[in-house]
Design a protein that fits this description.
Number of helices: 11
Number of strands: 23
Bound molecules: thymidine-5'-diphosphate, magnesium ion
Number of domains: 3
Structural class: alpha/beta
CATH class of the largest domain: Alpha Beta
């Protein structure tokens, strides 16, 4: 029996649906999140009777619950295992998100190679053809008789394949392409994504099968689909980086089985992704010698210190208003730092164009990188290089004060490991330092003090 086609409005944040459009979602209060979805007639005789077997469960006293150690499957990609908290937990649902072309499919196909060692792996692709997958697998030298690939988008057929293969790991690339014919909404819509994820979650939990979902991100960088998707899964790993640079960062945004402080660093090659054994050295490779406008800083990516090179370039403005761009540092933060440099240290930057860049496609969102931006811009303005063996870190306040940051000792240790000899850091951090090794630490309370320390040897 064919139903009548109708339209509903679904909130992309919380999944609330309503028959009429509203500017503000009545459930979560967000504005402009209601999107139109066409409800298509449901195909009869389809999925309902063929859902995976439902096992009724009973409430149980917590003292009676067996707390066996969770079984973890290694992907043999040490950085991926580390972000997962020590491997893929059996029966978990993991979402890997990232921009198109960043390398999500490559990463997961590479992970399949060793996941096959634990049992059959089903790789469902709704985006690529089987021959495309084969070509990629050939390039990555992946071939295993227990790796099954399946180009399908209908959840029904996926359940049949799962029944047949009984995989220990299922990869769905991507959740936005999968649809449940029982749910009356178009593929990729909020309701479809939510319903499919819910079924997959229930399956993962009841059958101890690990499921990895690939999720697209939208223009704003959020995961396309309802926020509830993030609530449903056990872990959300975001794959980030600049597509034009070879480095990629895998960051845990949520992890029920590990820390969200972990970051994995990969490099994309001709033959796929490889883990970067010494990320700080990689980030600093090719650093210009004795060039003005370059400054090294130490940031903490999760619990791990990482060195990065911040570059600044100031040139006299050719037109009336000064041009400013910033890559790798939040634009507003960069503008704030330029204003502080002008007001508190007397650098007349208003008639200069200013460009700020972090090398290697890294995004530094930690305030500890502030001082490096200030020093890099000052170095370009003064046309004085920061000595090669000097690094800086610290948060810069609106009065030009340098405020303390956490993990000073870890940052110093990483700088010392990479052969730096001098570090300018917040004065307030000096007491926290356990051992500074061979590195000379200079505490600065204001940006004037930091500028003096950075450039004195050249003045
Ligand atoms: P892909 O995994 O398809 O990205 P996503 O699934 O996130 O959309 O990877 C896309 C890019 O990676 C593509 O532009 C080509 C590049 N790439 C390599 O450089 N080397 C390789 O070995 C592979 C497989 C891909
Ligand atoms: Mg892909």
């Amino acid at each position: 029996m064919a139903g009548k086609r109708k339209v509903v409005y679904v909130c992309s944040e919380c999944g609330f649906d309503s028959p009429k459009w509203q500017g503000k979602c009545p459930a979560c209060g967000n504005w402009n999140t209601m999107t139109e979805e066409t409800v298509v007639p449901v195909k009869q005789d389809s999925f309902a009777s063929r859902t995976f077997p439902h096992t009724a469960s009973q409430p149980i006293a917590i003292s009676q619950v067996e707390s066996g150690l969770e079984q973890r499957l290694s992907t043999r990609l040490s950085e991926l295992d580390r972000v997962l908290g020590g491997g893929l937990v059996e029966g978990s649902l993991v979402l890997v998100s990232g921009e198109p072309g960043i390398g999500k499919s490559t990463l997961l196909l590479q992970a399949c190679a060793s996941l096959c060692g634990h049992g059959p792996v089903l790789y469902v692709t709704g985006e690529e053809s089987l021959s495309q997958i084969k070509m990629r697998a050939k390039r990555l030298h992946i071939s295993h008789e227990r790796l099954y690939v399946f180009a399908e988008t209908e959840l029904d057929s996926i359940w049949s394949a799962i029944e047949k293969i009984s995989p220990s790991v299922v990869i769905i690339d991507s959740i936005q392409t999968i649809y449940n014919p029982q749910t009356a909404a178009t593929p990729g819509s909020v309701s479809q994504v939510r319903e499919c994820t819910l079924s997959l979650m229930q399956y993962a939990k009841t059958h101890a099968v690990s499921i990895i979902l690939v999720g697209h991100v939208n223009k704003d960088g959020g995961i396309a689909g309802p926020k509830v998707l993030e609530h449903m899964v056990d872990a959300v790993l975001n794959f980030e980086g600049d597509r034009h640079s070879s480095y990629r960062l895998l960051r845990a945004i949520k992890n029920r089985f590990g820390s969200t402080n972990e970051v994995g660093i990969f490099e994309m090659h001709e033959t796929g992704l490889s883990v970067v054994p010494n990320p700080s050295a990689a980030m600093l490779s090719g650093r210009p010698e004795n060039a003005s406008g370059s400054c090294v800083t130490a940031v903490l990516e999760g619990t791990r210190p990482l060195l990065a090179e911040v570059q600044g370039l100031v040139t006299k403005s050719a037109y009336g208003s000064a041009r400013r761009t910033s890559a790798g540092i939040d634009y507003n933060r960069a503008m704030l730092l330029l204003a502080i440099l002008e007001k508190r240290a007397g650098f007349m930057l208003s008639s200069y164009d200013a460009y700020i860049n972090v090398v290697g496609g890294l995004s530094l969102d930690e305030p500890a990188a502030d001082l490096a931006v200030v020093i890099a811009i000052a170095s370009s303005y003064l046309e004085k290089p920061v000595p090669q063996n000097v690094a800086v870190f610290g948060e810069v306040g609106l009065s030009g004060e340098i405020r303390s940051v956490s993990g000073a000792s870890q940052r110093i240790a990483e700088l010392a490991r990479l052969g730096f000899q001098k570090c300018i850091l917040p004065k307030a951090c000096m007491n926290d330092l356990s051992s500074t090794g061979a590195i000379q630490c200079i505490g600065a309370a204001t940006i004037q003090e930091a500028l003096k320390a950075a450039f004195e040897s050249l003045s």
